Amino acid sequence: GENVEQHPSTLSVQEGDSAVIKCTYSDSASNYFPWYKQELGKGPQLIIDIRSNVGEKKDQRIAVTLNKTAKHFSLHITETQPEDSAVYFCAASIGGADGLTFGKGTHLIIQP
Amino acid sequence: NAGVTQTPKFRVLKTGQSMTLLCAQDMNHEYMYWYRQDPGMGLRLIHYSVGEGTTAKGEVPDGYNVSRLKKQNFLLGLESAAPSQTSVYFCASSYVANEQYFGPGTRLTVT
Q: Is B99 an 8 Å CB contact of chain A?
């Protein structure tokens, strides 16, 4: 089955700097790659996603890039703010009904 | 629009007791999922449903049963709780197979 590796497990950046979280996947048939943000005590929230026919997608301060050849995708957050502090999860799917395979998460800490 | 709701929010069980977790969604989604989240393990799929009256096993189904009698509800049952089932349980739903929306979670402790 699919295996998703996520790095780093913890990332600390200064407020205003950029943050990058990276994921690799194993199944070349995967075609959907979402990113979720989870705040303490809450459920994961979908923040951005990308499909395999697109190399990059942006939404305000966040962007996701996909390299199908290398089987890796990344989340980029620019001009980080205190409210960006959370755990971020990447996931991958081949589009089947059995859903998403998640990475183990990255705890992003924004230092004031 | 409440989205995905879960009942209860917290529960403490003794080993061997049973309980049912309820997930409800008001978005008319066909697909519903149950995950468990453990420290350092990410989210792992327990069971899922592709429509009313259907269920299927996910990655970690042992010790759990599910039912989808109504399109908007997905129930997760523990027949005989074990300490290894101490976890945070999340329900999710989606209109198509990929874009899943999660509930707030149920924190279960089995002593």
A: yes
Question: Three-class SS of residue B60?
Answer: coil
Per-residue pLDDT averaged across B29-58, rounded?
A: 93
Per-residue pLDDT tens for A33-76? 999 999 999 999 999 999 988 899 999 999 999 999 999 999 99
| Spatial CA neighbour of A88 closest among A18, A1, A23, A28 | A23
- Cis peptide before B83, with omega less than 30 degrees from 0? no
In sequence order, the β-bridge partners of residue B110 are B13
CA atoms lying within 13 Å on the CB side of residue A84: 26
How distant is the Cα of B18 from the closest Cα of chain A, in angstroms?
24
Q: Are A50 and A64 in contact (CB under 8 A)?
A: yes
> Nearest residue of A to residue B48 by CA position?
A98
Q: Return the structure tokens found at A95.
A: 């589009």
For B12, list phi and psi in degrees, rounded to 5.
-120, 125
CA-CA distance, A102 to A79, in Å (whole number)?
26
Beta bridge partners of A72: A24, A67
